[in-house]
């Protein structure tokens, strides 16, 4: 049986989430007050509906309490986000993820009992700043306790060396999750790399570890 999710708020962020979940085989209800946004996503999801998600009867009409999770990705009107969250909680939705921009909105959502808060603008800002300050870093996902998952261009000093020789874990205290190798169609995941794998010039490394260890790894081998 497929997972069932609802995405409320169909701006670029919410639409991207809905489409990606649908691609992975989930049943998706996409909700927005804007008829054009609802129509634009219709072909990509199980069902799309124009309605006011702050209305409890409207939510009940879509059997929202039966969803495995609901993503509230309303971007411009935080009052609507709060009201929607409260209605979802009252209906007993199992899992609620909500978008919050800035410290104040995140604090309010936390007070409402939301543990999973989405801040796409902040994450983009962090990634841009880090890519400027740390050449070679292409993308990063920040995790609790100062850990992160980072995609980096293969540092020059590592090209032609094996993973065993480099000692990513023993020397740098990092874990290599996977490696992306370039061909004529772009970069492709190589699965779980073996210790014998030789780093090539255009490889992209996806590493996991503490932020300062990632930065040290990049700077030493640049």
Structure, described:
By secondary structure, the protein is α/β, with parallel strands linked by helices. The protein has 2 domains: about 5-120, NAD(P)-binding Rossmann-like Domain (Rossmann fold, 3-Layer(aba) Sandwich); about 125-220, Alpha-Beta Plaits (2-Layer Sandwich). It has helices at about 10-25, 35-40, 55-60, 80-90, 100-110, 120-135, 165, 170, 210-220; strands at about 5-10, 25-30, 45-50, 70, 95-100, 115-120, 135-140, 145-155, 175-185, 185-190, 205-210. The strands form 2 sheets. The protein has a 6-stranded parallel sheet, sandwiched between helices. α1 (about 10-25) links the parallel β1 (about 5-10) and β2 (about 25-30). The chain is elongated and about 60 Å long. The termini are far apart. The mean pLDDT is about 85.
Would you spell out the secondary-structure blueprint of this structure?
Layout: E1 4-8, H1 12-23, E2 27-32, H2 35-41, E3 47-50, H3 56-61, E4 69-72, H4 78-90, E5 96-99, H5 102-111, E6 116-118, H6 120-133, E7 137-142, E8 147-153, H7 163-166, H8 168-172, E9 175-183, E10 186-189, E11 204-210, H9 211-221
Parallel strand pairs: 1-2, 1-4, 2-3, 4-5, 5-6
Antiparallel strand pairs: 7-8, 8-11, 9-10, 9-11
Q: Helicity level, as a percent range?
A: 25-40%
- Note the beta-strand portion: 25-35%
Overall mean pLDDT: 87
Q: How many angstroms does the end-to-end distance come to?
A: 48 Å
CATH topology heading of the largest domain: Rossmann fold
As an assembly, this protein is: single chain
Describe the biggest sheet?
A: 6 strands, parallel
**Arrangement of strands in the largest sheet:** 3-2-1-4-5-6
Which sequence of SSEs, written as H and E, runs from N to C? Answer: EHEHEHEHEHEHEEHHEEEH
